[in-house]
């Protein structure tokens, strides 16, 4: 459930949001906050509307060539547009403290796309991957 804009606490995005772990309602790791999506209200205040996570969101924060390479590589391997990073709407947030806690399950925010692609296309293709060692 989303808190009305007038009742949302004021946050310092740099110190209270960026690089924080995102946990689902079972305490499972979802990702880290790599960027935030902001919306400007009529009164000029900025309000967080979503958390962005993954290489597509982290790349622009990295300096120069590393950021560009990160985003282009992620985009090419994931098949997604460079600006189409993983987005978790603020309405899914249940609390914010040392981590961002969601009120929904990890699977409902669909953050596993790139990791699933890596697991099925790269890891599974390795000799002996997924085989019983006995």
Q: What is the strand and helix layout of this fold?
A:
Elements: H1 13-16, E1 21-23, E2 29-32, E3 35-40, E4 46-53, H2 55-58, H3 64-78, E5 86-89, E6 93-96, E7 100-102, H4 113-123
Parallel strand pairs: 1-7
Antiparallel strand pairs: 1-2, 3-4, 4-5, 6-7
State the CATH architecture of the domain at 12-53 and 87-123.
Roll
Radius of gyration: 17 Å
Shape: globular
User: What is the fold-level CATH name, i.e. the topology of the domain at 12-53 and 87-123?
Assistant: SH3 type barrels
Mean pLDDT across all amino acids: 78
Quote the distance from N terminus to C terminus: 49 Å
Helix fraction bin: 25-40%
Number of E-type strands: 7
The CATH H-level superfamily of the domain at 12-53 and 87-123 is PRC-barrel domain
Strand content: 15-25%
* Biggest sheet layout: 4 strands, mixed
Q: How are the strands of the largest sheet arranged? A: 2-1-7-6
């Amino acid at each position: 459930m989303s808190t009305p804009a007038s009742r949302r606490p004021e946050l310092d995005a740099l110190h209270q949001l960026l690089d924080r772990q995102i946990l689902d309602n079972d305490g499972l790791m979802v990702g880290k906050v790599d960027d935030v999506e902001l919306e400007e209200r009529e009164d000029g205040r900025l309000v967080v509307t979503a958390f962005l996570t993954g290489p597509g969101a982290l790349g622009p924060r990295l300096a120069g060539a590393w950021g560009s390479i990160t985003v282009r590589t992620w985009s090419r391997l994931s098949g997604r547009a460079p600006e189409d990073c993983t987005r978790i709407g603020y309405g899914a947030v249940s609390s914010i403290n040392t981590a961002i806690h969601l009120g929904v399950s990890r699977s409902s925010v669909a953050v596993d796309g790139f990791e699933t692609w890596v697991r099925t296309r790269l890891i599974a293709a390795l000799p002996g991957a997924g085989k019983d060692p006995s």
